[in-house]
TrEMBL record:
Annotated TM spans: 12-33
Record GO biological process: 3-keto-sphinganine metabolic process; sphingolipid biosynthetic process
InterPro entries associated with the record: KDSR-like, NAD(P)-bd_dom_sf, SDR_fam
Protein's recorded name: 3-dehydrosphinganine reductase
GO molecular function annotation: 3-dehydrosphinganine reductase activity
Known EC number: 1.1.1.102
Gene3D superfamilies per the UniProt record, alphabetical: NAD(P)-binding Rossmann-like Domain (3.40.50.720)
The organism's place on the tree of life at top rank: Eukaryota
Entry GO CC: endoplasmic reticulum membrane
Keyword terms: Endoplasmic reticulum, Lipid metabolism, Membrane, NADP, Oxidoreductase, Sphingolipid metabolism, Transmembrane, Transmembrane helix
Catalytic activity: sphinganine + NADP(+) = 3-oxosphinganine + NADPH + H(+)
Organism of provenance: Apiotrichum porosum
Pathway field: Lipid metabolism; sphingolipid metabolism; Sphingolipid metabolism
Function text: Catalyzes the reduction of 3'-oxosphinganine (3-ketodihydrosphingosine/KDS) to sphinganine (dihydrosphingosine/DHS), the second step of de novo sphingolipid biosynthesis.
């Protein structure tokens, strides 16, 4: 007893105890421990804009396997029809299961309201239980090469494509007192912009701003909000963006190994189950997450360690990435000259 007491008062033991206590108190005070929730969409109405391809399609498949009713939204009706045929096959002829597509361009407010209404009509006009805002596109390129239309569609097709639906969905859930869950899909570059993404990153930052705003407000209505921040996903959209992506951006992205849409869905679902507000796929995204989170909840006590690490990693990140850009000065000059950029 005596030895234990004297050991306890040894300075390093005391210091360690105080440090551990401080960490525990601060983590609790900061509400760092996200509460795990059950994710059981069986028999629930899931609304998946962007569900015909890539991440959204893989998610729709996962939801069908879990026994959910799934409505997807996309512009290309024939691709949607193929996806729905696949979903019906997965459901194995379950006649009760509602699986269909709505065709709409969600960059317009009217079309977003109408698409939601069309989907809900099949559920007696009830609001969805789960909404996964997966629609989006990217046309990465250097800022000087982007047209006015590229920059505008970078907000329409990245921000408004989800924001209009979020607005329509929230109003509907609140009116009907449906305690739903809304998941936004932003991106690594919604935390940390890198060269070549100026038409896209601002829209993803804006989406994060909207998700943070709703996280802060939806306690009023018992609506849950999640924000998914993936890095590269090997999807049709990814294949397409490679066509315009600048060599500098490709070089920077060499540090990121893109994952399959199915793997991305596993991270997303795990994040929802853990009750995490911000959901990430990898270590580097966690580094930029803790560096930019502000007052939103952390994902657990490990974020304290990440936070300290991030303070060291961020300046290295910046030097590596800025170095890649700086060393391309000459080749970009030549490239612009070859384009005739300076000629008038
Ligand atoms: N792939 C990646 O590396 C990453 C992607 N993300 C984000 O994840 C999400 C999914 O990406 P990904 O799977 O690659 O995308 P894909 O291009 O593979 O699929 C996009 C889906 O959204 C639909 N869609 C796009 N624009 C609209 C629109 N205006 N109205 C209605 N539906 C639309 C598409 O259908 P249709 O064209 O027929 O309308 C399709 O169903 C996007 O928000 C993307 O920004 C984030 C980080 C990395
Ligand atoms: C220690 C320092 C190392 C430096 C590491 C740099 C890592 C950069 C990773 C960039 C990943 C970007 C993913 C963008 C995904 C996206 O949203 C688009 N594909 C759009 O579809």
């Amino acid at each position: 007893m005596c030895t234990i007491t004297s050991r306890l008062t040894e300075p390093y033991v005391l210091a360690t105890a105080v440090a551990v206590l401080a960490v525990l108190v601060s983590t609790l005070a900061m509400g760092l421990f996200s509460r795990s929730t059950s994710f059981d969409p069986r028999g629930k109405f899931c609304y998946v804009p962007g569900g015909s391809a890539g991440l959204g399609k893989a998610l729709a498949e996962d939801l069908v396997r879990r026994g959910a009713h799934v409505v997807i939204v996309a512009r290309d009706a024939s691709r949607s029809a193929d996806t729905i045929a696949g979903l019906k096959k997965l459901a194995g002829g379950d006649a009760e299961r509602k699986l269909f597509a709505v065709s709409a361009d969600l960059t317009s407010q009217e079309a977003s309201e109408a698409a939601l209404a069309e989907a809900c009509a099949a559920f007696g006009g009830r609001a969805p239980d789960y909404v996964f805002l997966c629609a989006g596109f990217s046309k990465p390129q250097l800022f000087v090469n982007a047209t006015a239309a590229d920059l505008k569609s970078g907000l329409d097709g990245v921000y408004w494509v989800s924001a209009w639906t979020a607005h329509a969905v929230v109003k509907m859930m609140v009116k009907q007192r449906v305690k739903g869950t809304i998941t936004f899909v932003s991106s690594f570059v919604g935390y940390a912009a890198i060269a070549g993404y100026s038409p896209y990153a601002p829209g993803k930052f804006a989406l994060r701003g909207l998700a943070d705003s709703l996280r802060a407000e939806m306690f009023l209505h018992d609506i849950k909000v999640h924000l998914y921040m993936p890095a590269g996903i090997l999807s049709p959209g990814y294949e397409n963006e490679q066509k315009t992506k600048h060599a500098i951006t490709k070089k920077i992205e060499e540090s990121d190994t893109p994952i399959s849409p199915e793997a991305a869905v596993r991270y997303l679902v795990r994040g929802i189950e853990k009750g995490n507000y911000q959901i990430t796929n990898d270590f580097m995204t966690d580094m930029v997450r803790v560096a930019t989170a502000g007052p939103v909840p952390w994902n657990g006590p490990l974020d304290l360690v990440y936070s300290a690490l991030s303070a060291i990693v961020m300046p290295i990140f910046r030097q590596v990435v800025d170095g890649t850009v700086r060393s391309s000065k000459k080749s970009v000059e030549e490239e612009l000259q070859a384009q005739g950029f300076f000629d008038n």
